[in-house]
């Protein structure tokens, strides 16, 4: 702004300053982060989830019992020696739950990463090219969506022999289509935006537009979906393992631990409740984190609050 | 609308063929029933017996030919051979289907009614203690593994029966093996008693997600301009809530419900396993464990038809409820 | 306002006094409206002008009692002598639609998509005229549709909103507003969402509605041109307050507040030979933590020390009914926008800003929504 003496009046005229601009401009990332940090449930959940993650992956190296070694103590309730007790064969439940959490988390995270990777590219390509490519790709995705996830996973993974990456691959192979749909919808609206037009006008290649302009801008929904998929993943895997088609002994997962304990709810309740509580804790914190991220990326929903 | 329905059904046929074909290839390659047959029996069967078994279940034919024979056979009511001797897959399927339908229908109806009640209440009382409570339990139920909750309920049922000295809550099977007094009423109440716990189990997850959905949808509508205009016209709060907000907010729920049918069928598998129902869930688990290709396919075909049917019904219902959608 | 004495009620159908509205948010208290007052006589027409976020719509919703429950409303709103603030919702809803009617900005979303327009008009008729048979309500709806200029109304009455154009839908909303012969119609930016070509028709329909019902009109807009043609009096709002009010002539020919000057300067006019428009630079202040002093000061080319310390009250400027909230209103006699706002400097700055916003950056899609 420029100083003006046009009014020509006496007195001390001050140049108009930009008082409202003294508030520091924030980048989009900072804004998202700030909104996320304010979401109390999401923040608490994030802390809890990270703690569980560290515990499951670092804990086994520090704990003096192995999940696959007998101890002389059979059917012990939780104590200082065995914080989560032992089972009828003398396995230390603390070591087993730790191992089970690790396996379940590994599978769930792989599911989320795998299906997000495939689904995001699939959806972005379909949404970007539209027309025939879009129809074909989305019909395939729709086809996958009509398959009952749990039933198909059950049938296929019966062949897995319990290897964790195979189970993850099977489930991810059935969930990527959800991501593809979400990303396609976002990309369809983004591709009409000016910055895509500008990139096109500047002669950017299709791949560059997809990977540099469309996908980064669709990051919000992609991240939110990936988070939700971790919850879906852990619930599906544990259910599979429970029915006997997922992780197989001697390895273990939270679902398998609950399955093994289901006949002993009365006699050795700690074996049943503790792994169950871990599944709930993981799925619950993940859902809260996803909720916080959704609010952070999509402030329109918060406007309601005013 | 009739023309649209017919067209939709016609379009569904290639979808059904494509999806069953893919699934067939997957299932055929998911295990080796002949090897199972050859190794798992004592004394080991002769080579000739193994070859005969392989021929019996068409394991010696190429997959594409098997698929073709199977799908054309199904059209004539022939569901193919099972690895179990003397098992009529078609009969098995429909007997079990009836059992499962009761469970799924009861669970869906209950989940839907409760979801609408709690979702709407939560939306109207947004940011009150009631809303937070409902939201928290919604999150909790969404995070709750069905199998874990089912085992817990089963224990609770046994405890309840012990406390009351009754046998009302059935925890095993869809009905008692036999009844002392075999009247129609007794049979009915026996079935209801067996239905209670599995229904609660199966309804739980859908209830949670549909409640959250109803709440969000209701909130969106409550903040819409037309609800504000309806209030500005002088309509009373209650009238606006029911006639303008609820009526419009529930429309998208039809689609969500229909899309979730696949998830509910999956949940039914777990529920039936735990409560030992002789329904479709048990059938799937058994056939997956025994690598029974045609029995698995029968299950998947029927569930695919159910899923596609539900989507069609949802789309038609949508057109009835929302004048913006017209099919012709 | 123009004083038309009408027996004992002294002419005022709507009196708003010292109205303030606050919204508690996570970031703090948003003071959306800060002491707004106006008086509307029977048949009178008041234009309320201001940028988005200046509190125009919130004021209107406060009058209607339609603000969300979290809003804190203080002051006084009297309709025909009855205090509306604090009235139970049931009593208020008797008045809404029959005493005071409202027209909203976006006709595309104002009508419920699942009911026919006839049903939505009949609904308001039957709400306020309990004895009305549905047949008669329908006939009346057809009449109303004809009145607001919808061709072949007897056919249109059964249409759903999505079958009508935006202009037609806004006519339906006007028909709903006039259905029960209200004494006041509040039109909140009724033409903003519409094509320029349709705007004049809608304003005509609004005039027809006024003529038919004899209602007083509060016309909220950010378009001074609309106000000039359809209002007797004007109130200019800025940062939740009325900063200048007077007759249309006062505001257009002898403005006494730099903000009004700025608004006029950014309006293309056929009646003056000015070479270029003079935009107001900067943007309205956040209603959260409003600094002391005149809220317009940061954007005001005439700003002086006093402007940063005390907020000027709305005082007489010129004659009795022309009020202005500027410390230096008296110095603005016979001043035009071009004298105060620098056209050239502003232009280059605007250009720089434009260049800024068109630069592609990730996440730019949400950027403007983050002000809360």
From TrEMBL, chain A:
Residues 1-21 are annotated as: Disordered. The keyword Cell inner membrane applies. Residues 105-290 form the ABC transmembrane type-1 domain. It is found in: Cell inner membrane; Cell membrane. It is a multi-pass membrane protein. It holds the Pfam family OppC_N. Keywords: Cell inner membrane, Cell membrane, Membrane, Peptide transport, Protein transport, Transmembrane, Transmembrane helix, Transport. The chain crosses the membrane at residues 41-63, 107-128, 140-158, 164-183, 222-247, 270-290. CDD domains: TM_PBP2 (cd06261). It comes from the Bacteria. Belongs to the binding-protein-dependent transport system permease family. OppBC subfamily. This is Oligopeptide transport system permease protein OppC. It comes from Streptomyces coacervatus.
UniProtKB/TrEMBL annotation, chain B:
Keywords: Cell membrane, Membrane, Transmembrane, Transmembrane helix, Transport. Residues 97-318 form the ABC transmembrane type-1 domain. It is found in: Cell membrane. InterPro entries: MetI-like (IPR000515), MetI-like_sf (IPR035906). Its main location: membrane. It is a multi-pass membrane protein. The chain crosses the membrane at residues 9-28, 97-121, 133-153, 192-210, 245-277, 297-321. PROSITE patterns: ABC_TM1. Belongs to the binding-protein-dependent transport system permease family. This is ABC transporter permease. It comes from Streptomyces coacervatus. The lineage of its organism: Bacteria, Bacillati, Actinomycetota, Actinomycetes, Kitasatosporales.
UniProtKB/TrEMBL annotation, chain C:
Its main location: membrane. Residues 14-264 form the ABC transporter domain. Gene3D superfamilies: P-loop containing nucleotide triphosphate hydrolases. Residues 353-372 are annotated as: Disordered. Keywords: ATP-binding, Cell membrane, Membrane, Nucleotide-binding, Transport. It is a peripheral membrane protein. Residues 356-365 have a biased composition (Polar residues). It is found in: Cell membrane. SMART domains: AAA (SM00382). It holds the Pfam family oligo_HPY. Belongs to the ABC transporter superfamily. This is ABC transporter domain-containing protein. It comes from Streptomyces coacervatus.
């Amino acid at each position: 702004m420029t100083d003006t003496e046009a009014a020509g009046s006496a007195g001390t005229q001050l140049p108009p300053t930009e008082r409202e601009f003294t508030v520091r401009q924030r980048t989009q990332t900072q804004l998202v982060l700030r909104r996320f940090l304010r979401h109390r449930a999401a923040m608490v959940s994030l802390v809890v989830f990270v703690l569980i993650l560290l515990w499951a992956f670092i804990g086994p190296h520090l704990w003096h019992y192995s999940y696959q070694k007998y101890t002389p103590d059979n059917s012990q309730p939780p104590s200082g020696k065995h914080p989560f007790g032992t089972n009828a064969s003398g396995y230390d439940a603390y070591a087993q739950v730790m191992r089970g959490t690790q396996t379940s988390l590994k599978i769930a995270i792989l599911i989320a990463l795998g299906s997000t990777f495939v689904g995001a590219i699939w959806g972005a390509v379909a949404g970007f090219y539209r027309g025939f490519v879009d129809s074909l790709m989305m019909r395939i995705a729709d086809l996958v969506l009509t398959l009952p996830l749990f039933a198909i996973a059950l049938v296929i993974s019966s062949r897995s022999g319990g290897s964790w990456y195979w189970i993850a691959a099977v489930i991810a192979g059935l969930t990527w289509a959800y991501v593809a749909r979400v990303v396609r919808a976002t990309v369809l609206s983004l591709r009409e935006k000016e910055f895509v037009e500008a990139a096109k006008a500047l002669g950017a290649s299709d791949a560059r537009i997809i990977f540099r302009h469309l996908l980064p801008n669709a990051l919000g929904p992609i991240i939110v979906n990936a988070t939700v998929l971790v919850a879906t993943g852990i619930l599906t895997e544990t259910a599979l393992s429970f029915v006997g088609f997922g992780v197989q002994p001697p390895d273990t997962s939270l679902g398998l631990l609950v399955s093994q304990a289901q006949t002993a709810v009365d006699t050795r309740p700690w074996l049943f409740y503790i792994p169950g509580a871990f599944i709930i804790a993981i799925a619950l914190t993940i859902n809260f984190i996803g909720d916080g991220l959704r609010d952070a990326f999509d402030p329109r929903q918060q406007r309601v609050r005013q | 609308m009739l023309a649209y329905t017919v067209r939709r059904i016609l379009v569904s046929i290639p979808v059904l063929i494509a999806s069953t074909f893919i699934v067939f290839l997957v299932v055929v390659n998911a295990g080796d029933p002949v090897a199972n047959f050859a190794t798992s029996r004592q004394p080991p069967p002769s080579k000739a017996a193994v070859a005969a078994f392989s021929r019996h279940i068409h394991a010696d034919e190429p997959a594409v030919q098997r698929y073709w024979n199977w799908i054309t056979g199904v059209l004539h009511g022939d569901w193919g051979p099972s690895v179990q001797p003397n098992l009529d897959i078609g009969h098995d399927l429909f007997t079990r289907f009836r059992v499962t339908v009761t469970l799924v229908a009861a669970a869906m109806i209950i989940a839907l009614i409760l979801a609408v009640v709690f979702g709407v209440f939560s939306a109207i009382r947004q940011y009150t203690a009631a809303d937070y409570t409902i939201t928290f339990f919604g999150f909790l139920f969404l995070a709750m593994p069905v199998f874990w909750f089912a085992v817990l309920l089963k224990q609770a049922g046994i405890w309840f029966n012990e406390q009351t000295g009754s046998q009302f809550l059935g925890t095993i099977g869809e009905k008692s093996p036999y009844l002392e007094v075999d009247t129609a009423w007794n049979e009915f109440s026996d079935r209801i008693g067996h239905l209670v716990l599995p229904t609660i189990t199966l309804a739980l997850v859908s209830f949670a997600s549909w409640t959250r959905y109803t709440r969000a949808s209701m909130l969106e509508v409550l903040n819409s301009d037309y609800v504000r205009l309806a209030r500005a016209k002088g309509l009373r709060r209650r009238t606006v809530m029911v006639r303008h907000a609820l009526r419009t907010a529930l429309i998208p729920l039809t689609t969500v419900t229909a899309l979730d049918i696949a998830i509910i069928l999956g949940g039914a598998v777990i529920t039936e396993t735990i409560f030992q129902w002789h329904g479709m869930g048990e059938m799937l688990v058994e056939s997956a464990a025994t690598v029974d290709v045609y029995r698995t396919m029968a299950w998947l075909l029927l569930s695919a038809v159910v899923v596609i049917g539900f989507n069609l019904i949802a789309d038609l219902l949508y057109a009835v409820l929302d004048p913006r959608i017209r099919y012709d | 306002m123009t004083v038309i004495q009408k027996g004992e009620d002294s002419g005022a159908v709507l009196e708003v006094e010292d109205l303030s509205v606050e919204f508690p948010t996570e970031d703090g208290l948003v003071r959306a409206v800060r002491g707004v007052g106006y008086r509307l006589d029977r048949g009178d027409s008041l234009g309320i002008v201001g940028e988005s976020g200046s509190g125009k719509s919130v004021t209107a919703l406060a009058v209607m009692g339609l603000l969300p429950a979290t809003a804190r409303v203080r002051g006084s709103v009297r309709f025909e002598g009855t205090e509306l603030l604090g009235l139970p919702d049931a009593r208020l809803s008797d008045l809404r639609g029959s005493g005071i009617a409202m027209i909203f900005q976006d006709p595309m979303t104002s009508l419920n998509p699942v009911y026919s327009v006839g049903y939505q008009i009949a609904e308001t008729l039957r709400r306020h005229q309990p004895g009305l048979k549905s047949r008669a309500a329908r006939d009346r709806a057809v009449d109303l549709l004809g009145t607001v200029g919808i061709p072949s109304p007897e056919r249109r009455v059964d249409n759903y909103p999505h079958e009508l154009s935006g202009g037609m839908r806004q006519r339906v909303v006007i028909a709903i507003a006039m259905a029960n012969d209200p004494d006041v119609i509040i039109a909140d930016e009724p033409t903003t969402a519409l094509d320029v070509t349709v705007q004049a028709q809608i304003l005509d329909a609004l005039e027809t509605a006024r003529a038919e019902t004899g209602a007083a009109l509060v016309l909220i807009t950010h378009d001074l041109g609309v106000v000039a043609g359809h209002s007797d009096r004007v109130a200019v709002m800025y940062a939740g307050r009325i900063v200048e009010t007077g007759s249309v002539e006062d505001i257009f020919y002898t403005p006494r507040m730099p903000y009004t000057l700025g608004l006029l300067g950014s309006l293309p006019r056929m009646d003056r030979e000015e070479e270029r428009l003079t935009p107001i630079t900067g943007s309205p202040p956040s209603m959260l933590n409003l600094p002391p002093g005149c809220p317009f000061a940061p954007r005001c080319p005439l700003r002086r020390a006093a402007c940063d310390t005390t907020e000027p009250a709305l005082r007489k400027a010129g004659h009795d009914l022309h009020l202005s909230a500027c410390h230096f209103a008296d110095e603005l006699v016979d001043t035009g926008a071009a004298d105060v706002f620098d056209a050239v400097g502003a232009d280059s700055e605007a250009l720089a800003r434009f260049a800024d916003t068109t630069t592609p950056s990730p996440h730019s899609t949400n950027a403007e929504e983050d002000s809360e």
